[in-house]
Amino acid sequence: MAFTDIKLEQKQQALAELRSVKELFASRGWFAGTSGNLSVRVGDFNPDEFYFAITASGKDKTIHTPEDYLFVDKDGKACEATSLKPSAETLIHNEIYRLTGAGAIFHVHSVYSAVMSEWFWERRAVPVDGVELIKGLNIWEEEAHIDIPIVSNFAEIPRIVPEVTERLDKRIPGIILRKHGIYAWGANAFEAKRHIEAFEFLFEYVYRWEMLNGRK
């Protein structure tokens, strides 16, 4: 499917979903200093050909403007003539879409995710045991244990992508960049939003549990 075959209303729906979730996440303080990025896929999925709308680089995500988003292809290249640049981390979105076929990917920065990624860096995963909100990730086993993968945070984004490829766990709809933030995805924008909210709860829970137990 070529980008020109995607219906206008599909593109408009993707932009509306991005606007809505951007406003919500901004109200929670998850986009400090223009950080974070959001994307929603449009049209059919093929690992070798897909398209998505993504937040433009360097924009204030606490306000809405006509220049907030653009559409890119599987290589992160703009599908339409534009002066906008996609988020610097678009290549990570590309790889997650390619590996999972997700419908949306949301990336935010929170203190808890950043702190936990460093606290558990040596084991390369944040462990979570038996917390109810694990069910928010579509994992329904009683007293489930999960390990949320952590990958390196290099200044050169292409260096991060191979670690994402290697560490991504299809059972866990999220991956953390060290001292940076969480990427969460889902079949659609609603599911990706639910997943990122569940992850953020889990990070705060683990942080408070670790501190309560005085672990070093």
Structural class, by secondary structure, is alpha+beta
Percent of sequence in beta strands: 15-25%
H and E order: HEEEHEHEEHEEH
N→C terminal distance:
52 Å
If helices are DSSP runs of H or I spanning 4 or more residues, what is the number of helices? 5
- Dominant shape: globular
Number of strands: 8
| Largest beta-sheet characterization | 8 strands, mixed
| Radius of gyration over all CA atoms, rounded | 17 Å
Strand order of the largest sheet: 3-2-1-4-8-7-6-5
Poorly predicted sequence stretches spanning 5 or more consecutive residues:
none
Chain oligomer state:
single chain
Task: Please estimate the helix content.
Answer: 25-40%
**Overall mean pLDDT:** 95
Task: Please explain how this structure is put together.
The model has no long low-confidence stretch (mean pLDDT 95). An eight-stranded mixed sheet has the order 3-2-1-4-8-7-6-5, sandwiched between helices. The chain is α+β, with helices and mostly antiparallel strands and 216 residues long. It contains five helices and eight strands, in the order H-E-E-E-H-E-H-E-E-H-E-E-H. Strand 1 and strand 2 (49-55) form a beta hairpin. The chain is globular. It has helices spanning 8-27, 90-100, 111-119, 157-167, 189-212, and strands spanning 37-46, 49-55, 69-73, 104-108, 125-129, 145-151, 174-177, 181-186. Residues 16-207 form the Class II aldolase/adducin N-terminal domain. It holds the Pfam family Aldolase_II. Its EC number is 4.2.1.109.
Attribute tags:
216 residues, alpha+beta, 8-stranded mixed sheet, 8 strands, Methylthioribulose-1-phosphate dehydratase, amino-acid biosynthesis, EC 4.2.1.109
